[in-house]
Amino acid sequence: MTTQSLTRNQGLVFDVLSHAGSPLSAYSILDKLRDDGFRAPLQVYRALDKLLEFGLVHRLESINAFVACAHPDEGCHAHGLTAFTICETCGQVTEFHDHMIEDRLKGFAKDRNFKTGKTTIEIRGTCAGCA
Amino acid sequence: MTTQSLTRNQGLVFDVLSHAGSPLSAYSILDKLRDDGFRAPLQVYRALDKLLEFGLVHRLESINAFVACAHPDEGCHAHGLTAFTICETCGQVTEFHDHMIEDRLKGFAKDRNFKTGKTTIEIRGTCAGCA
DNA sequence: CAATTGATGTAATAACATTACATTCACATT
DNA sequence: AATGTGAATGTAATGTTATTACATCAATTG
Ligand SMILES: [Zn+2]
Ligand SMILES: [Zn+2]
Ligand SMILES: [Zn+2]
Ligand SMILES: [Zn+2]
């Protein structure tokens, strides 16, 4: 998936997220796109659904917000697991992968015959700059 | 914190969660407590805040719902980290601790001078019984 | 040119959570 | 017993996040 093949709405939403320094809620994305003709939440949610599907965007479950993927070309999407630190002061989000954690969680699930779907790992706290 | 010292509202909310076989939203708790005099969401949210503080209840961020702690006497609350599997079919929640994962996340945070607050680990999927 | 499929526009509503303010209760101090 | 204090409660209103329903438009294809 390249950013080329996005539709107009998808491209606009992705662009807003890419240039934001911190996670944005669907409604704040909507506000930023009023001048581009956005009128309703659904326009944002539909675009976000696709961007999530393409692996260009992540949803942060613990704060109901969205961020552009930090490295969409590395198959971030293909990895089952992406973890995040989220600074509660400045909103800075850092995205990382950890195979040991991934294996450990896989092992736990396998031991219990639990079929793993989407996994969320989010650390909220204070980044170095805000400490 | 014993279940003795809970206030009436806290006790009612805890009781509902304890007897539910799956996570409940704040509003479904409210519905179950109408007959006990509950009228407004805030009555539920206030009780939940305290129960979370006491470590008797966990919030599942990825599904906006709450569960009673599976082992409140083991200092679950004291541990920094509790992880969950959540069956999307039947709602079964399993709670577990993993020191290796905890250490790994701590290490990652420390390396980046990120001061860790609340950490969320939730695996959504399908439990053995629902497979 | 249908027919199909994916995307869009719009309104309405549902689901989740907080703010504000008045009141009551538990309990310690006088 | 009266008073003062902080925690808990009752209630209404509002704010925030997400989905349902339905009509329309655009690209693709047989
Ligand atoms: Zn990513
Ligand atoms: Zn920060
Ligand atoms: Zn627990
Ligand atoms: Zn199940």
Automatic annotation (TrEMBL), chains A, B:
Q: Which domain of life is it from?
A: Bacteria
The Gene Ontology biological process annotation of the record reads:
negative regulation of DNA-templated transcription; regulation of secondary metabolite biosynthetic process
Task: Tell me what organism the protein belongs to.
Answer: Shinella kummerowiae
Question: Does the record bear NADP in its keywords?
Answer: no
Q: Which UniProt keywords apply?
A: DNA-binding, Iron, Metal-binding, Repressor, Transcription, Transcription regulation, Zinc
Record: residues binding Fe cation: 102
Its name, as the record gives it, is Transcriptional repressor
Residues reported in the UniProt entry to bind Zn(2+): 87, 90, 127, 130
Pfam families attached here?
FUR (PF01475)
Q: Which free-text remark accompanies the cofactor?
A: Binds 1 zinc ion per subunit.
Gene Ontology annotations for the cellular component aspect, listed alphabetically = cytosol
